[in-house]
Amino acid sequence: MTMTAWAIKGREFANCNCSYGCPCQFNALPTHGNCCAVTGYQIDQGYWGTVNLDGLRCAGIYSWPGPVHKGNGTMQLVIDERADAAQRDALNRIMTGQDTENMATMWWVYSAMSPNKAQTVIAPIDFEVDVDARRGRLVVPGLIESQGEPIHNPVTGAEHRVRIDLPNGFEYRLAEIGSGRSTTQGRIRLELKDTYGQFARIHLSHAGIVDEATVQR
After folding, report:
1. Residue-range domain boundaries for the chain
2. pTM over 0.70
3. Which residues have a Cβ under 8 Å from the Cβ of 152 and sit 6 or more positions away?
């Protein structure tokens, strides 16, 4: 089967249930033994074949009973209501790991480890993210409310800055880490507060990370 080439350059904000360090980023088991997360993406530039994806947004809600690599997860995608039929199909294919080399992106992994897939939602996505400031906001009416901010020093209250550098990762090369809180409705119900928040610039393709995807210093 012929693979359709695609690429997406943009920004993400993600909030999972792990502690601020997120052991998964270090090949360790998740903080509480299971993994659940909310993710949002702003596509600044993108394409799938001849389909232009510039300016669109997408999001995902995920839940696994154990570590992600043990599988049996449940996932639900959200695609920007502004997308036309071709763009919706393209984003759905990309976020379910289709037209992607094995293990090349986090979307491929999430989908492969989530046999339980709820119907994709087409909805307005209110999304803002400032990677360097470690601030983000993701709202899908009636489904997702998620907020991200810097970690604060418990003694002084000052903003604490920390980053994770993954030279061989499949999602980003460098991510700013902060604190997140999220509430989701529907099939996957999550209540996260003061847990791992991730802010990153991403540049992905059907073959994996495009190496210029780094946080600006």
Report:
1. 6-209
2. yes
3. 158, 159, 160, 179
